[in-house]
Design goal:
With about 120 residues, this protein is an alpha+beta fold. Helices cover about 35% and strands about 20% of the residues. Strand 1 and strand 2 form a beta hairpin.
């Protein structure tokens, strides 16, 4: 199975200048636990709930921005890679989501739960 078959094509993103309280609202609104950070159409990072929790040692949700806590070394994959490759990448790098990139643009995102759901449906 290829990543393109299980990735979510409706990717919720944020900007590095957004305040963390806004990001928590986006997490709740869109029912996600993390999202790619995009500035001027370019992937510049990724943020998840644990990044925000770690950031709270430095300041408050109203003070801190995404840029203050995001991970800048983003692990990505392409739509044509296998789901097994995506799962292996997640395990090796201890990540729960991978932005899917094609022609330098985000075309999707795959999460651990996407892979688990695909495995469950395959029987």
């Amino acid at each position: 199975m290829k990543i393109v078959e299980l990735m979510n094509k409706n990717v919720v993103t944020c900007h590095s200048s957004e305040k963390l309280n806004i990001i928590l609202n986006k997490f709740e609104l869109f029912k996600v636990a993390g999202m790619p950070v995009v500035d001027k159409g370019k992937l510049v990072g990724i943020i998840c709930q644990s990044d925000i929790l770690k950031g709270l040692k430095q300041g408050t949700l109203q003070e801190l921005t995404v840029k203050d806590v995001m991970v800048t070394q983003v692990i990505t994959a392409t739509p044509t890679e296998s789901a097994v490759t995506a799962a292996t990448i997640m395990l090796e790098h201890h990540v729960n989501r991978i932005p899917i990139i094609e022609n330098n643009k985000i075309v999707g995102i795959v999460t651990r739960s996407d892979i688990i759901k695909a495995v469950a449906e395959c029987g």
